[in-house]
Amino acid sequence: MRIAWLVGAVLAGIALFAPLAAGDNPDLPSTIETLSASAASAGVSVGGGMPPPTFGLPSWWQGGVCDPETNPGSVEIGRWGDLIACGPNNDAVSAADPHVGWGGALEWECVELSERYLNQRYHLPTVSVNGDILVDTYFDPVIQARLGFDMSRTPLIRIYPGQGRVPVPGDVLSLGQDASPGHTGVVTASLVSADGNGVVTMINQNRYRGAPGSAFVVIRIVGGVPQSLGQLAVIDWIHDTSSDAR
After folding, report:
1. Domain at 1-246, CATH class
2. Ranges of the chain with pLDDT below 50
3. Would you list the domain boundaries of the chain?
4. pLDDT computed for residue 7 by the predictor
5. DSSP characters for 64-114?
6. pLDDT of 80-91, one tens digit each?
7. What is the rounded distance in angstroms from the CA atom of residue 94 to the CA atom of residue 117?
8. 165: burial class by Cβ within 10 Å (0-12, 13-18, 19+)?
9. Is the pTM of this model over 0.85?
């Protein structure tokens, strides 16, 4: 399989459902840049994953896309289905909607995007944490009891690097480094070969101060293990087991 064919398939919005052959690794810089810009909206998946969400705009947004009445000057910087990344980061507190367990979050921090996704798709509440411990916090039994939810009643599990899985669309990643609040985002595309090499794309907020075009980043997968995004190592991720092949 040729790199040019792969890129063409992504640009055409074709979903791939079988692993790439060993050795056919999309690892050229130009290919990565193309995937970063186009695979997100295409919802490309190799080896499973959730389809792009269709849950509509958040009920607490006022005035349309990116909550302009609450947070004037906000603009869309990218989207995966109905999951919209916004910027610039002004740290306005989003409105609360108790009917869906949304307690408000700082717009447009990285955590707000991941938690908004988990709330709209799985009706999980917001938690006040940094990106590096977001995944761990949702699986903390004390937090679950305090906020009134139970992860064991969802199809969601926690996965660590090296456990024989790679991130797929819909997975929520926690990334971090020492003395850093870390980062988080939602996987939108996965192109990984049978030998565990390739790339995944992630939609995120606030990594580049909300600049247009910065909504998607690419994380390399080597030997089945996600590589660092700059200085940020992938710590763990939330995965929906209902997307696994049966």
Report:
1. alpha beta
2. 1-34, 36-37, 40, 42-44, 46, 209-212
3. 1-246
4. 29
5. STT-TTTSTT-EEEEEETTEEEEES---EEPPPBGGGTB---EET-HHHHH
6. 999 999 988 888
7. 14
8. middle
9. no
